[in-house]
Amino acid sequence: METTVKWMDGAMFVGESGSGHSVVMDGPEDLGGRNLGPRPMEMLLLGTGGCAMYDVMSMLTKSRQAVQDCRVEIQAERADAVPAVFTSINMHFVVSGAGLKDSHVKRAVELSAEKYCSASIMLGAAGVEITHSYEVVDSEAA
Predict the structure, then answer these.
(1) Angle at Cα 49 formed by Cα 47 and Cα 55, nearest 5°?
(2) Can you tell me whether residue 125 is helix, strand or coil?
(3) For the whole model, what pTM was predicted?
(4) What is the pLDDT of residues 95-104, one digit of tens each?
(5) If DSSP codes are grouped into helix, strand and coil, which group holds residue 142?
(6) Which of 47, 115, 128, 132 could form a disulfide with 123 if both were Cys (CB 3.0 to 4.6 A apart)?
(7) CA–CA gap between residue 45 and residue 50 (Å, rounded)
(8) Quick check: helix, strand or coil at residue 118?
(9) 45-61 burial: b if 16+ Cβ within 10 Å, else e
(10) Are strands 86-97 and 3-9 parallel, antiparallel or unpaired?
């Protein structure tokens, strides 16, 4: 896997993935940026959320769950000192659909956390306290 990150100006960078996709990252105005994109550390959280979401949705699809909507809400804490590494991350999955089985959602979240999500498992191995939670919203009851 390869990527390239190019400095544009101030605190703005453009990252290009090996698959040819680009993303703008930028800092806040008080640090020389123009606030035109997510911060690099936010990108790390976005990537971790995407990695975990891929796992969860893959497992729910394979178990024939009628998912109509799924999101992962991520809250993270960072150290006060430099380097301001993540100290804790909570990933809360909200899965909506008709007749979803709680046991399937629980198992998908657990398997992602313990076995499949390379990003969150890597961060956990580096000392970040990572927790997972979920809720199932029955769209038939809404």
Answers:
(1) 105
(2) helix
(3) 0.92
(4) 999 999 999 9
(5) coil
(6) 128
(7) 9
(8) helix
(9) beebbebbbebbbebbe
(10) unpaired
